[in-house]
Amino acid sequence: MTHSAIDPAREGRFILLLGALVAFGPLAIDLYLPALPAIASGLAASAEAVQLSITVFLAGFSLGMLFYGPLSDRYGRRTVMLSGIALFAAASLACMLATAVEQLIVARFVQALGGGAASVLARAVVRDVYTPTEAIRKLSLMAMVTAIAPLLAPLLGSLLLVQFGWRGTFAAVVLWGVLSLLVVWWQLPETLPASQRGQLPLSRAFAIYGSLLVDPVALGLMLAGGMSFAAMFAYITASPFYFIELHGFSPFAYGLLFASNAIGIFAANYVNSRLVKAKGPAVMAGVGSGLGFVGALLLWVAAGVNDALPAVIGGLFVVVSMTGLLGANCVGLLMARYPQNAGAAAALFGASQFGLGMLASAAVSYHHDGSGRPMAWVILATAAASLAGYLLFRRAAR
Description:
Layout: H1 8-22, H2 24-30, H3 36-42, H4 47-75, H5 77-97, H6 101-129, H7 132-164, H8 166-187, H9 202-213, H10 216-246, H11 251-279, H12 281-304, H13 309-321, H14 323-337, H15 342-366, H16 373-397
C-alpha cells in the first residue's frame, strides 16, 4: 500500500483512525485521573498505591511497544495490532471488576501491554504509506486527533465518576477497546507487504535496538522527545493532588484546566503541520525543546514563590504544549533514518517516551511533600534533559 493507494476521500478517515489508535495511552490514563481519590477510598488503599497504577501502566506500555515493533516489521502490522487491542480490552474489563488495589495494579499492567500495540503501530503504518516529510505532516495531524483524548477524557471521566462511580470510567475504556478492535478489523488493511518485511530471524530483528541506542543521532532524538513527554507525566501524576487537594479545585474545574493544556498540544501540532515543510522537522523540534525549557524555568520560579498560581499554570501550559512540537518531529526523523526498521524505531521512541514518563512519575511520587515543589523540580530537570538531547542530535547530525 503506497500513498497513491489511498484516495483523498478515504485519507481523512484513515488519519482519524490512526490518530485514535495513538490515543490509547493518553485515554487509558487521563479518563481515570479524576477518579483517583474515589478509587483509593473505594478499594481502601493509600493515595500512593493508587498512583502506582499510573506508574505500572507506563512500564507495561513501554515494554509492550518494544515487542510489537520488531514483530510487526517481521509479520506485518495488522495481525499484531489486532492481538494487542484484544488484550487491552480484556484487561480493561479486569480493571473494572477489581476488588483490591493489587488486582487493579496487575490488570493495569496487562492493559498497558496490550495498548502499546495500537499506539506504536499506528505510527509505523504512516511510515509505510508516506514519504518521510509527508509522514511527519501526517503524524502532526494524527497528534491533533490524539490531543482530543486528554482534552475530553478528564471531563468525561469526572462525569462518569458522578453518574456511575469509578468503575464507570473503566467500563468506558472497555467499550473503547472493543470498538477499536472492530474498526481496525473492518477498516485497516495491511500496509507492510510481505515483500518489504524484514527476513531476519526475530533475535536479529530485536538486535536493531542495540544499533539505535549507540547511534548519537537516534539517542538525541529519543532524549529530546522522551524527556519532553516525561515532563508531561510529572504534571499528570502531581496535578490532581496539587490542584484538587492543595488548591481546592473541584474535579470538574481540574478537568477544564487539564483540557486547556491539551488545547496547547493541539495548537502546537497544527502549527507544526503547517510549517514543517518550509522550516524542516529539525528546526521545529529545536523551537519545541527551547520553549519547553523556558516554560519549566517559569514554573520552577513560580512554585518557589508562594505558589504563584497564574504563573504555575502558564509555565505548565508551555511545557505541556511543546510535547506537540517534539513528538511528531522526533519520531518522524528517527523513522526516516531507519526506513527498513520503521516499526522498531517507532517502538523504541514510544517506549523511551513512556519509560522516561514512568521515571518522572515515580520521582514526583517519591518526593511528594505536600507542596508543588517536587513537580516543579522534576519538570525542570526533564526539560533541561530534553534540550540537551536536541543539542546532541544537532551536533551528531552535522
